[in-house]
Amino acid sequence: MTSVLPPQKESTSGTYTFSSRPRALPNRSKYRDPVAELQEEPTQYGNIMYDRRVIRGNTYAQHILPVSAQPDPIEIQRQQEVRRRAAAKKRAKDQLRPRTPEPVEGRKHIDVQTELYLEELSDRIVETDVECQTDAFLDKPPTPLFVPAKTGRDAVTQIEEGELFDFDIEVKPVLEVFIGKTIEQALLEVMEEEELANLRGQQRAFEELRNAELAEVQRLEEQERRHREEKERRMREQREVLRLEKETAEKIAARVFAKHYLADLIPSIYSNLRDNGYFYDPVERDIETNFLNWLVKDVENTLDDHVLGRKVLDMLIREVVEKRLDVFQQMEQQQQHNASA
């Protein structure tokens, strides 16, 4: 239900107020429709800097448009061209947009919720499968022959003798033309075959010449390759010989330098070692390392034998003493027993 607002009266201050009727907002779709976007024309945004109706600068020579001014056909054509290009660009961009691949045979795409909280879809249509058994198909009877209904009425024409053309006379120029054209076509085909044979011969000769040139080029390339490899091999051998000669010269020089350097070094080293006691008497060293060690070990073995003999003797003495003590104790016990009896 709508209500009409009463017009407001002019205020005493000299200002005017205006109120518009309440209206509902248009129902807009939430998502864009790519098909509708392609079909609708692109929006033309105007720029007053290029608008002919806006006067800039001096107004003495301004261009006044007539009341019934017709649009410029060139401008209309240019606008249509701009719209067509924009639509083509949008179509190409839509085609280049990545899409979901088509499902394989036997499957189909299903909308899946990917949000954090699942939402129950209540607008899904319940699907059920129902089967029924039908009777066997009967053979279709043969289709009757179609006979169109007769329309109009029959009419006849009387042809007198000489009214029709003579076939033998009339067909002669046509036959001559056919024969001439056939012979001309045959001659053209023969000439074409001869020309093709000549072209094949020239092509065969050209291929033979080209194959010979290719073989010669390959032979020269192979010869050049062998020469290059032989040159590289000899250069490597020469470099190896030079390296060995240089290495030999360096070794000889190092040996000579070492001899000169060590000529006075060896006697001084021997004298220092002799002074520090590194050169010793072999007999004295043999006595210290071999004889003395053997003597010490032999003495230790002899002392161990003496100690072992003393331990065995002590054990025997202790055992004899213990046995005699036991015999004495038994004899005392027996005497005491006899005395008490």
Computed structural class: mainly alpha
| Low-pLDDT ranges | 1-14
Question: Which geometry do the CA atoms define?
Answer: elongated
The proportion of residues forming helix, as a percent range, comes to 55-70%
- The DSSP helix count reads 5
End-to-end C-alpha gap: 153 Å
Strand runs, count: 0
Radius of gyration: 67 Å
Strand content: under 5%
Element string (H = helix, E = strand): HHHHH
Mean pLDDT: 79
Major beta sheet, specifics? none
In short:
Helix content is 57%, strand content 0%. It has 341 residues and is an all-alpha fold.
Describe this structure in words.
The protein has 341 residues and is mostly helical. 57% of the residues lie in helices and 0% in strands. The protein has 5 helices and no strands. The chain has helices at residues 34-39, 73-96, 167-262, 265-275, 282-340. The longest helix has 96 residues, at 167-262. The protein starts with 33 loop residues before the first helix and ends with a helix. Residues 1-14 have low confidence and may be disordered.
Detail the topology: elements first, then pairings:
Layout: H1 34-39, H2 73-96, H3 167-262, H4 265-275, H5 282-340
